[in-house]
Write a structure and sequence with these properties.
Number of strands of chain B: 11
Order of helices and strands of chain B: EEEEEEEEEEE
Shape of chain A: globular
Number of helices of chain B: 0
Helix content of chain B: under 10%
Shape of chain B: globular
Structural class of chain A: mainly beta
Number of strands of chain A: 12
Number of helices of chain A: 0
Radius of gyration of chain B: 13 Å
Order of helices and strands of chain A: EEEEEEEEEEEE
Structural class of chain B: mainly beta
Helix content of chain A: under 10%
Oligomer: heterodimer
């Protein structure tokens, strides 16, 4: 079985400060990990993914995520938050042996001007 | 049009109505998905079509009936729905064959069942 957890329903951060959105996962094999963002009244938009190799993955809009196998985590980060980053963020995992991707419950990021 | 489009964007229907949601992808992908998004719940995978064959059906009630006539189009036929079926229905597509391929989502159809 595979699962993913996003422990925070909401994260508030001041504009210009670094942000972190947390994600932990559980799979039986080596995971493929994804981050998506959803703006109001829009579908999910792909940000970045980890397949293998370098544990630090860089994605769109200045976001990056760090894969930590020992902690089974894949936290999303950005050095300096923008008000326009305010949105709903979803972590997702896929065990290569499974047909489907499992999404987390989402974390609402609020960047305060 | 580019990406993944969905129509209608909003739908209000009574419990006895029959309606259909439409999804079209312009990305040359060969796998398509229906998801249900409800507040404070994980995204629920409903159906997966790969190479126009249904490969995943997540115990969805029979009042939801998918149809995939070709690799670019996906429908979700709705009949005798319940108020708890009110949600945002998202369509997505990807390139089948590689487990690490990301999915591309449409904007969704906001469904309200009265």
């Amino acid at each position: 079985a595979q699962s993913v957890a996003q422990p925070e329903d909401q994260v508030n951060v001041a504009e210009g400060n670094p942000l972190t959105v947390k994600c932990t996962y559980s799979v039986s094999g080596n995971p493929y990990l994804f981050w998506y963002v959803q703006y109001p009244n829009r579908g999910l938009q792909f940000l970045l993914k980890y397949i293998t190799g370098d544990n630090l993955v860089k994605g769109s809009y200045g976001f990056e995520a760090e894969f930590n196998k020992s902690q089974t985590s894949f936290h999303l980060k950005k050095p300096s938050a923008l008000v326009s980053d305010s949105a709903l963020y979803f972590c997702a995992v896929r065990d290569p042996g499974y047909q489907k991707v499992t999404f987390g419950t989402g974390t609402k990021l609020q960047v305060i001007p | 049009e580019t990406g993944v489009t969905q129509t209608p964007r909003h739908l209000v229907m009574g419990m006895t109505n029959k309606k259909s949601l439409k999804c079209e992808q312009h990305l040359g992908h060969n796998a398509m998905y229906w998801y249900k998004q409800s507040a404070k719940k994980p995204l629920e995978l409903m159906f997966v079509y790969s190479l126009e064959e249904r490969v995943e059906n997540n115990s969805v009630p029979s009042r939801f009936s998918p149809e995939c006539p070709n690799s670019s189009h996906l429908f979700l036929h709705l009949h005798t729905l319940q108020p708890e079926d009110s949600a945002l229905y998202l369509c997505a597509s990807s390139q089948a064959g590689e487990a690490n391929n990301e999915q591309f989502f449409g904007p969704g159809t906001r469904l309200t069942v009265l």
